[in-house]
Amino acid sequence: MDLTLSNLTHRYGATEVLSGIDLDIAHGRILCIVGPSGCGKSTLLRMIGGLERPTSGSVLQRGAVPPDCLNPLTYIFQDFALLPWRSVAGNIALVLEDHRLPGPRRDQIIADVLARTNLTEFRNAWPRQLSGGMKQRVAIARALAVNPAVMLMDEPLSALDAQTRELLMDDLVALWTRAPFTAVYVTHNLAEAVRLGHRIVVLSRRPGRIREIVEIDTPLADRHAGDPALEAHQAHLWQLMRDEAAAADMELQNG
Ligand SMILES: Nc1ncnc2c1ncn2[C@@H]1O[C@H](COP(=O)(O)OP(=O)(O)OP(=O)(O)O)[C@@H](O)[C@H]1O
């Protein structure tokens, strides 16, 4: 399934948050959205996910959802959103419960996503026993369990320390390389954007407009921290954002 955003604009009261967004989200690719604080990145993601309706413009879904898809648009949040009273497997089972799957099919899905995220031996652990990185792996496994058409990822690594972020980025690359998924990935972190994004959309400060779309052709599996080509892309993104980020920062401090 592909998504097409056409002339999307959004206001909260008198404040225009997003303006004239035209964007194609292609199947099997990771699209990153970067931009200064408050430029409307999370709002855009909520509109893509149908959690909020744009003031004007449209989000069109084209093409079929994947076979066995139980939830076409599935979120992964920064704060993991795990139920503390459910085990790892129980948290994953939760998203399958409404779908009346036969028990063996449900067990097979859970075993599959635990294996794909290297969590098999943690299936009976409780969230409180897990590090932040492991919690986010569980959240990723839970999202994969519904075989979404598009994963909507809102700063998924922001709550993690730098080393854990590196490990999770490697995990996401390995997951995508084995079975490409479609994702829209909002981040503040330009290093994440150049490691994970096939396309990177740079928004201006509020009201967010598309300033530039940067395409990176290097296969995800060949991208490594410290790669000069990636660093050049990152420097270009920062160049685009720098002045606007500073202005947005002042705006928030004065507001
Ligand atoms: N429900 C709401 N009601 C009113 N204003 C809102 C609401 N949600 C967001 N806003 C405002 O809309 C603007 C865009 O918010 P949004 O969270 O989408 O930006 P963002 O780019 O994701 O920000 P950040 O990078 O700081 O996470 C901000 O000024 C925010 O205060």
From TrEMBL:
It holds the Pfam family ABC_tran. Residues 3-232 form the ABC transporter domain. InterPro entries: AAA+_ATPase, ABC_transporter-like_ATP-bd, ABC_transporter-like_CS, ABC_transporter_ATP-bind, P-loop_NTPase. CDD domains: ABC_NrtD_SsuB_transporters. It comes from the Bacteria. SUPFAM superfamilies: P-loop containing nucleoside triphosphate hydrolases. Keywords: ATP-binding, Nucleotide-binding, Transport. GO terms for molecular function: ATP binding; ATP hydrolysis activity. PANTHER family: ABC TRANSPORTER ATP-BINDING PROTEIN (PTHR42788:SF20), TAURINE IMPORT ATP-BINDING PROTEIN-RELATED (PTHR42788). Belongs to the ABC transporter superfamily. This is NitT/TauT family transport system ATP-binding protein. It comes from Rhodovulum adriaticum (Rhodopseudomonas adriatica).
